[in-house]
Amino acid sequence: MKYVWIGLLLAIGSSACSPRDKHQKHSIVRIRWVRDPENLSPLVQPNQNAVDALTLLHCSLLQLDFSTGIHVPALADSLPNVHLVGDSLTEISYQLRRAATWDSGRPVLASDVAFTLKLYQCPGLPNENARGQLSFIRDIRLNPGNSRRFTLVCRGQAPEFRLETGDFPVLPEATLDAKHTLRRYSLAQLANLTSLPPRDTALTALVSRYQHADPSHHPERLPGCGAYRLQAWEIDRFLTFVRKPHWWADTLRPTPFVLQARPRQITYLIIPDETTAALALRRHELDVLPQLSARAFKRLQAADSTQQELSFYSIASYELLMAGFNTSRPMLHDSLTRQALAQLFDPAKLQKATQLGQGLRTVGLVHPSNRSYYNDSLALPAYNPKQAVFLLQQAGWQRQAAGWVSAKAKNKAQQAPLKLRLRYRADDQVFATVALQFKSAATALGIPVALLPTEASSLTTALQEGDFDIYVRKLSTSPFAFDFSMLLHSRTIPKSNFTKFSTRTTDRLMDAIAATGAPAQKRKLLRRFQTIIQQQAPFVPLFFLPYRLATARELQHVHPSGYKPGYYAAAATWNIASSTVAAAQ
Amino acid sequence: MRRWLLIQLGRAGLAAWATASLVFILSRVLAAGAEEAMLGESNDLRVRTGATSPVARQALRQRLGLDEPVFYVTRTSRASATWRWHGPHNQYHHWLTRLLHGQLGWSFRDGQPIGPQLRKALVYTLPLAGLAAAAATLAALALGLALAGGPLATPTGWRAALQLVLTSLQGIPVFVLALGLLFLFANPDALNLLPAYSLADDPENLPFGTYLLQLIMPVLTLVLAVLPELALPLAAALRHELRADYATTARAKGVPAPTLLRRHALPNALLPLLTSFASLLPSLLAGTVLVESIFSLPGMGRLLAEAAASHDYPVVVAGVLVAAGVRLLGLALSDALYALADPRIRLAS
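Above: the input entities. Below: the structure tokens describing the complete assembly.
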């Protein structure tokens, strides 16, 4: 009897686990997502998965070319022309591609871009994030003689405007506003409204139409001009995108990289557990496994047969692991003390212990791959307890029986021995490792450290309230923008400048860097800024974290990258020849 | 009987309401986490500061219904703190009114009504937990009878080994069990028999065999997780009954050992099993949080875990209501079974 059961199990198992038809397989790419995108409205974009999905459904004016790492025209015909007006306005002019059309065959026009920008600013819609992100665009001027040409008027002057004005999904006006009711409002008018005017029937009707369409869960009701359409969405299970048979960019010769859409179908499988996902990859139930932890990556590489079946990639991302000091604390007010404590972090060993040595060490916030702006004349932060002792003594600290006491202390509060509280997010082992390493190094020098692992949202509140001496966290930096004011400017204390560090010099430098477009001038300012920040040491940059990716070996052109999400799904192709050979063997 | 049932249900309803109300108020007091989660993190240099401006925050609070007072009365946070009455214009009143109309509210994350979300999740969780409960109960009966069938003092031989295995199993966390099964049955380096996760292709036309295959490991994990706490007390109770005078008399009358065990000892030994049964349903629900995450099943456990992690409090509160209901249902069910199993226990008492 037991053999019957085992036989039945094997029979069912073999039928369920048999490899799918080769022909079908070679046009489908299956990618793992940890979580559901939750909302596919272009106005909301709540997480990276939603952004990735929207990139398949919609087109922006400019898009990131993963093969070169620069933004290139997508819906736009060419890169925009930038014109500075006085010292407070920027005009950016775009021309749309003649070939660009909606699925209905109607051309994508400047009026669609105007409608999109107004929708992003319309009160009553779930666009709180988008409103703020695009609030610098104050007006859009359509060209009366050319329906594909328009000029965006931006408040302020910053080189990043050129990219940021092109980085949003363009939506069809005809779908939500066939009667062109939004055209009677200017962009500034809508941006200035905090809520829906009670008697404004046009706006109320538009909001009602949007809510009725519910594009957050029915993106087909607000169809974009991207290469794919959503075929199926089982919440928390999978999303399937299928290639449109006739897409406007198919007529372009040569097809720009950002407008390539090779897989016939892209399926995102929601697999929360990493071990399950790794086994699914090994069982050929999955083709792309991104954002792998160091442990899973190592285990996969070490497993039998994976070297023949899988490809492994590791590339430094733009996510910086860092430790920050609360400079408002009297004991951490002196830069020498901060420099001393910075010497107690061991970035090299931490990188080895937590990331298999992958990632990229850095002197500051600028990514080392940016050879022009990165200040390579500075020394990388390194573990040096002897130097830490020397610097502490320089800062006026004396080691006594009670611990390190400041000789410069003027009042009782300042006479307290050096004692630190280190706060970090509790759900990430990397932070815990950094905290433990620092604690061990500090304890060896006689500096007591209390570790405070904290829940994510409570951590933000604690940091804003200054309830810490040192924090450890990840910081997402941008490869294209160099506005560091959010982290270190006096005007962002305490909202996002948790270290509360600010000096007039660095404030002015950050403002100048953000406003300067000339590369030579920017280079000079950025190098100076990195030097000052290393001297002041409000934070210690440990290293840029790696993105790890494992894919089926036959899947090619995934373009592993340090940009989110770490690969480019639409360019992937199957190397059928090699898979056929492998199958024959 | 009907009166007793009504009283039980009334008590259960009151307890569920009190628990959910407490969670609701606590979650709304801490709702800043939800705003942070939705407005983008403060650790992203790519986010323009305008996105997290007070205007954006206020607009979000308004959309989520967080701009009203949390409860009927609130205490001002000024130095001379005073209580302030808000009448029915408060979040708790709106929530309770909707609840009485059968609405659980809307999710913060996706703006969708929570009722259908819970129903969809239960489609996965109920078969999983139901199968696991049935299988665990049957297995516990079989193992309990097997363990108690030997010498009266202490189990020896294979019974001792089985008891040791069950005791060891009790100390293994659910996620270790789940991962162990995965590595055993869905691993190309071991037995590559079962799918590693809930296969997603074409769910509407999913063959029944494939559906069963997907359920094997999750159900087995839950069964293994709860089996010791059912089987071991049952075996101990059976051994206790077999030492009683009536069992000695039966033996003296020549009643065969298996008959004595099943017909005479088992009905009397069932009471501890029923006590365990009351905690079985909540245990299974707790187990599904991990099991559904590991095996990628979009059930109740995963829904609640993800809602809690992303501060989606309306979903959490709805989940608490369901969990409390299940717990109280389990208690009521075990009370009823107690009365059925032992006529000495009067429902009125």
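Note for the figure: Chain A touches chain B through 67 residues (CB under 8 Å).
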